[in-house]
Amino acid sequence: MSTSKPSVYVSLGGRAAVERAVTIFYDRVSEDKRINKFFKTADMRRLRLKLAEFIVYAFGGPTEYAGRNLVAVHKPVIKKGATVYHFDIVAAHFIGTLADMGVCKETQDDVYTVLVTVRPIFPDPWWLKLWRLLNKSGRERHSRDLKDIAMPKPPNAVDGKNEHPLAPAAKEASGSQRQPTRISASSASGCPF
């Protein structure tokens, strides 16, 4: 009897569940005025197919990903002004999609662990850069450190020993080690989906 944990792909419910999640996710994104501008000119049919293909691969499914690397894929939206602020909104929509589909918290946390490896590709928004600059200039009234307001890593966070295969590309693209904003709270113990 094997006690190994199933892949996130299996926990999500396989390819049909991934395709359903991608459809619901892009419906949510297209309705959000904070981020839908980045998708207005996109071929949504192609985007849905590529994202589903990538998710199957990234979450341990049976296929290989043959698309472009994540830095190249996200370069056009970054040129349009996408920042970590926008990434966090998109990631929250994906986690929200999974919650709406009834995916358990443990699997949501596993998905978040994979999603967060892409976050460093995106630059900080101008207001965060300004906040950091003000902090470095010695203004005491603005002296709260970012780590005081940054949310903790998820319970299953990627560490140096068990790093997701996409993490090196994301780190290379950013050159920084920003702490992610927590999207999904709590960790549940083994709930079957």
Description:
This protein has a single domain, classed as Orthogonal Bundle (Globin-like). It contains nine helices and no strands. The chain has helices spanning 8-12, 15-31, 44-58, 70-79, 84-100, 105-115, 126-136, 146-149, 167-174. α2 packs across α5. The radius of gyration is 17 Å and the shape is globular. The two termini are 20 Å apart.
Summarize the structure.
This protein is mainly α and 193 residues long.
DSSP strand tally: 0
The amount of helix comes to 40-55%
Rounded mean pLDDT score: 76
Cα gyration radius (Å): 17 Å
Beta strand %? under 5%
Shape-level CATH architecture: Orthogonal Bundle
- List unreliable stretches of 5+ residues: 139-170, 173-193
* SSE-based structural type: mainly alpha
The biggest beta sheet is recorded as: none
Order of helices and strands: HHHHHHHHH
Termini Cα gap: 20 Å
Output the number of helix runs.
9
Principal-axis shape equals globular
Under CATH, the homologous superfamily reads: Globins
In oligomeric terms, what are we looking at?
Answer: single chain
CATH level-1 class: Mainly Alpha
Supply the number of structural domains. 1
Q: What is the CATH topology assignment? A: Globin-like
Keywords: Heme, Iron, Metal-binding, Transport
Protein name: Globin
Pfam families: Bac_globin
GO molecular function, one term: heme binding
